[in-house]
Amino acid sequence: MKIASIIAVGWIGLCGAASFASAGDEHTMVAPDDIKWGPAPKILPAGAQAAVLFGDPTKQGLFALRLKVPPGYAVPPHTHPADEVVTVISGTFNLGMGETADKGSAHALPAGSFFALPPGTAHFAYFDEETVIQITTNGPWGLNYVNPADDPQKSQ
Predict the structure, then answer these.
(1) In this structure, are residues 62 and 42 in contact, taking their beta carbons and an 8 Å threshold?
(2) What was the pLDDT predicted at 7?
(3) Residue-level pLDDT at 58
(4) What was the pLDDT predicted at 10?
(5) Domains, the chain, with CATH or none
(6) In sequence order, what are the residues at sequence separation of 6 or more whose Cβ sits closer than 8 angstroms to the Cβ of residue 1?
(7) 96 and 125 in contact (C-beta within 8 Å)?
């Protein structure tokens, strides 16, 4: 939990130009052309972009975050401290379960697909084409690599 807290505290500085929408009492509407993409958090492998549509992933409470990844992108086996609730907006999300990235065991989830994993569930992802996903869950959001050497922040 301590690692997740450290990750969450660093989120704001790591998101770069990604916009943060208020999760207060006002309604929120975001048209596709209004999405402001910026660098994804450095806890993720380089190359992804992020946009926060609602809430604040660094704080407790509901948030909606989109990630855009390029072809060939992969996230090694990892877990999250909270539920992982994902909708595939475009492209294909290849989801594998477990502590080893065995691509042969992954399931291809095309645009329109949805999955939800409980906290602490080890999984990995890879992408053969540009893909956009939306994570809608409760913060603070974090990511813990099964193999600490896979953490991009440790290799900098």
Answers:
(1) no
(2) 40
(3) 87
(4) 42
(5) 2-150 (2.60.120.10)
(6) 81
(7) yes
Instruction: Give the global pTM.
Output: 0.82
Distance (Å, rounded) from C-alpha 92 to C-alpha 72? 12
Residues making up the chain, counted from first to last: 156
Question: Which strand ranges, in their side-by-side order, compose the sheet holding 74-79?
Answer: 107-110, 92-97, 123-126, 74-79, 144-145
Q: What is the pLDDT of residues 110-145, one digit of tens each?
A: 999 999 999 999 999 999 999 999 999 998 888 999
Q: What is the pLDDT of residues 70-109, one digit of tens each?
A: 999 999 999 999 999 999 999 999 999 999 999 999 999 9
Region of 42 on the Ramachandran plot (φ > 0 left; ψ -120 to 50 alpha; else beta): alpha
Sign of CA dihedral 48, 52, 53, 58: positive
Q: Which residues pair with 50 in a beta bridge?
A: 38, 67
Write a three-state SS string for the chain: CHHHHHHHHHHHHHCCCCCCCCCCCCCCCCCHHHCCCEECCCCCCCCCEEEEEECCCCCCEEEEEEEEECCCCEEEEEECCCCEEEEEEECEEEEEECCCCCHHHCEEEECCCEEEECCCCCEEEECCCCEEEEEEEEECCCCEECCHHHCCCCCC
